[in-house]
Amino acid sequence: MNILITGGAGFIGSAVIRHIITQTTDNVLNVDKLTYAGNLESLVSVSGSSRYQFSQTDICDKEALTHLFQTFRPDIIMHLAAESHVDRSIASSADFIQTNIIGTYMLLEVARQYYDNLDERQKATFRFHHISTDEVYGDLHGTTDLFTETTAYTPSSPYSASKASSDHLVRAWGRTYGLPVVITNCSNNYGYYHFPEKLIPLIILNALNGKPLPIYGDGLQIRDWLFVEDHARALYLVATQADNGKTYNIGGHNERRNIDVVHEICELLEELAPNKPNGVKHYKDLITHVKDRAGHDVRYAIDASKIERELGWRPQETFKSGIRKTVEWYLANQEWVKNVQSGEYRHWINKQYKS
Ligand code: NAD
Ligand code: TYD
């Protein structure tokens, strides 16, 4: 099968490509603009494969996309390209509107034209798989309620509103034009090759460098953490097995308060990196409460029973096992870390945490 993946140089897209190249016989075309978040170094273990190709292309460029569809002839589209960081969307939303909404629209239009010219056999298996987030559902205020596939959309941030918009476009292209679409909405991912602007890699790297560990507000907000490789397996399963028109929520059954996540990382570092930077007695002493995020969602938690029941997917990692692997990976991959901490990264971090 030929699988066209957008955003394959990002955190989750690169995990999906590593999974496909190592675990299947499918061909991959990675279509990625290489924004600050895209990093081809995350693909070095598979980029030598004859089944892997890369094109540096913006998904808003309809002509370039049309050419790629004509030459690669995809059977499946897995659409992950997006601006993905909530804090950046609050600081400046333009790129989120452009890539997440306009980019998805362009991709849908190109896919529709391409699909219309397929023969009946190819049409039967073609899928446009849109990868989305649980943040489209807004947040939960109880302690036991869960997001299901029928929860109403009430996004809070420019990021989640742009993702919600793209989900609506995808469903409309399915219903109106008959494009075979599937959508997945996943909870927070963590794991290898995660860009260090997001909570978990930021905390690991700041701690190792003796820098403050910023907790927004009281740190009591809850996220439902999923190991990225479990997500990659789920995505491949949905893209290749799910019926036309289906939606699946994907989650790890690992709800944690932010403050507890940070303490867990500090404890692991005490064990795995006991030689602390100068002047640091305990990693947890670096914890610093900072100004809360505007519109901060209180709690996310996923009911993943539909994908478990219908496709037999289950996460393999618990938070305890996954976070240990993640901390070990960052300790063993300082070179990757050094390379992503480029000028643009430093500029963002300096601006975001200036006080
Ligand atoms: P990421 O920010 O790490 O990677 C995004 C990738 O998209 C980068 O490689 C970037 O270069 C590329 N990209 C951005 N704009 C582009 C454009 N205009 N054209 C082509 N490529 C472009 O994001 P991620 O964390 O890997 O998330 C991937 C997808 O999964 C996103 O759609 C996101 O909304 C969704 N998602 C993420 C999470 C999470 O916890 N990270 C959870 C649920 C869903
Ligand atoms: P993040 O990793 O940005 O993911 P998302 O906003 O998509 O859930 O943040 C996870 C949680 O951690 C969120 O509640 C915000 C909080 N957070 C901090 O407390 N400090 C930080 O420096 C960052 C980046 C996030």
According to DSSP, the number of beta strands is 13
Strand order, largest beta sheet: 3-2-1-4-5-6-11
Largest sheet: 7 strands, parallel
CATH architecture of the domain at 2-194 and 227-252 and 301-317 and 344-353: 3-Layer(aba) Sandwich
What percent of residues adopt helix (DSSP H or I)?
Answer: 40-55%
Bound small molecules, by name, code or SMILES, are:
nicotinamide-adenine-dinucleotide, thymidine-5'-diphosphate
Listing every helix as H and every strand as E from the N terminus to the C terminus, the arrangement reads EHEEHEHHHEHEEHEEEHEEHEHHHH
User: Roughly what is the average pLDDT, rounded to an integer?
Assistant: 96
* Radius of gyration computed on alpha carbons: 20 Å
- Count of runs of 4 or more consecutive helical residues: 13
Content-based structural category: alpha/beta
Low-confidence residue ranges = none
- CATH class membership of the domain at 2-194 and 227-252 and 301-317 and 344-353: Alpha Beta
Return the CATH topology of the domain at 2-194 and 227-252 and 301-317 and 344-353: Rossmann fold
- Cα-to-Cα separation, first versus last residue: 51 Å
User: Which range does the strand content fall in?
Assistant: 15-25%
What would you call the shape?
A: globular
